Amino acid sequence: MVKLDKIYTKAGDMGLTRLVTGEEVAKWSPRVESYGAVDETNAAIGLARLYAEGAMDEGLARIQHDLFDLGADLATPERDTPLPFQPLRIVPTQVARLETELDAMTERLAPLTSFILPAGSPLAAHLHGARTIARRAERLIAALAHTEGEKVAPEALAYANRLSDWLFCAARVANDDGRADVLWVPGANR
After folding, report:
1. If you write DSSP's letter for every residue of 149-190 in order, what string do you get?
2. pLDDT (tens digit, 9 = 90+) per residue, 23-65?
3. Domains of the chain (ranges plus CATH)?
């Protein structure tokens, strides 16, 4: 488990940080950008939880724990040298759980007839905000996965992809199962 005796180390004062493997990288490296966006997603979900109750809050809490797992996964790159510990990785059951919950939410929602605006109830608006950050995290993870010399487990990328879909559907659920969605009206202000 994690034990932090001191929060600041001054190691980052030169723009560098250490991965879980101990290797030093620039704070703007694709790997750090990826897990940084995952952390931002987690914080945005924390804000959404201010408005969530019951099963929605429980689902968001589970996702927050998963996002720490995803951050740990990304912060522990797979290298040719074996690690002296078992790294924490996203596993297929975490992706499958999101898919099962997504299917359940989708069943209660009417099909979309228009794009929707990121608005509605306070919970829905915060979930849409978290969704956009999750999409950015997904793009950064995908870019990392396609960076020469870097490896990203397919489950990590799949989790990020399903999460943004989950947050989209959850926002619709938070808008009275989609009945209070704010629909986009193309060319409305011409």
Report:
1. T----HHHHHHHHHHHHHHHHHHHHHTTTTTT-EE--TTTT-
2. 899 899 999 999 999 999 999 999 999 999 999 999 999 999 9
3. 21-78+87-177 (1.20.1200.10)
